[in-house]
Amino acid sequence: MAGDITDPADLDRLYDTVRAHGRGLDVVFANAATASFATVDQITEQDYDRIFDVNVKGTLRTVQKALPLLNDGASVILNAATAAENGTPAFSVFAASKAAVRSFARTWANELKDRGIRVNAISPGPIDTSGITELVDPGNAAAAVAFLATADSSYMIGANLYVDGGENQI
Known about the structure:
Helices cover 41% and strands 16% of the residues. By secondary structure, it is an alpha/beta fold. The protein has a four-stranded parallel sheet, sandwiched between helices. α1 packs parallel to α2 and α2 runs parallel beside α4.
């Protein structure tokens, strides 16, 4: 089901469809991302608003609207990014938005733990998407998301799993 996470009506439509199936949700992967390169002197208010609306507000709305449908013991996975930590020039607004997403994972893990809902984040390096291929070389984090979605990661809460080929680790 295609939709726009910056449009609350699209999210309502998505979750109404889930609700109609009557089984709730065991996994939510909030995989919102948009970016652009701009140095501090080039950042426009429009760039800032667009990036934060998608990456931060879109992630917040996606999880908020999913809460009534999340089954106890569900897994919520947020897409952060290595950019939140590595200081890439001209990528500061994107990096700040992904640092906010990482903070969401820690806080929401605490808030939802009494329901047995695990909240974790992944911090991938570049991902092969239509929006990023023009900016950086692609990568892949699907296996990490699949791992966090299963009981194999049942002892992980509030974690940030780096999926960057060692880019930020070595």
